[in-house]
Amino acid sequence: MPASPASTRRCGKPTSRNGARCCASISTDPSSAARRWCRRCSQQKYGRIVNIASIAGKEGNPNAAHYSASKAGLIALTKSLGKELAQHDILVNAVTPAAAKTAIFDQLTQQHIDFMLSKIPKARFVLVEELAAMVAWLASEDCAFSTGAVFDISGGRATY
User: Fold this and answer.
1) What pLDDT was estimated at residue 6?
2) How far apart are CA 155 and CA 160, in angstroms?
3) Is residue 66 within a helix (H) or strand (E), and if so which, with residue range?
4) pLDDT at residue 77 above 90?
5) 158 neighbors 152 (Cβ within 8 angstroms)
6) What is the mean pLDDT of residues 52-62?
7) What does pTM read for this prediction?
8) One of 67, 105, 137, 151 is an active-site residue; which one?
9) Which domains does the chain have, with CATH numbers?
10) Whether 55 contacts 159, CB under 8 Å
11) pLDDT at residue 44 above 90?
């Protein structure tokens, strides 16, 4: 369930196995958002942060150095915070999806779309529902041990 920019939901443990109630903060500065979130959740000794990075952060993308660098930075932030907050049961993970066919594709040339698809061994784009399912698990109580991890969901584009 997307949140509006700079919105915050109440922190806390999920109220049920399927209905996670968690704090979500969206900001142009993930480090500041994580600090704000952690202040509230460290008191409860529980929390989940799931950063949405990109395969570009692991591999780099041509003609997108700034984007690739920012996503690489988000991956590093995830790893560092995962270590710092583990003792408080605040788990920090990231996902690195390949491209998902969304409305932004309307702004791309077919040549660019074909290029992106050519990099994915699965020969298709990730479905938003697939990405959402992974994020939902990472934000749940079922994910109780993984922290500082980067979960690849790129259809085989990156295998490390």
Assistant:
1) 33
2) 12
3) helix 65-85
4) yes
5) yes
6) 93
7) 0.79
8) 67
9) 30-98+131-153 (3.40.50.720)
10) no
11) no
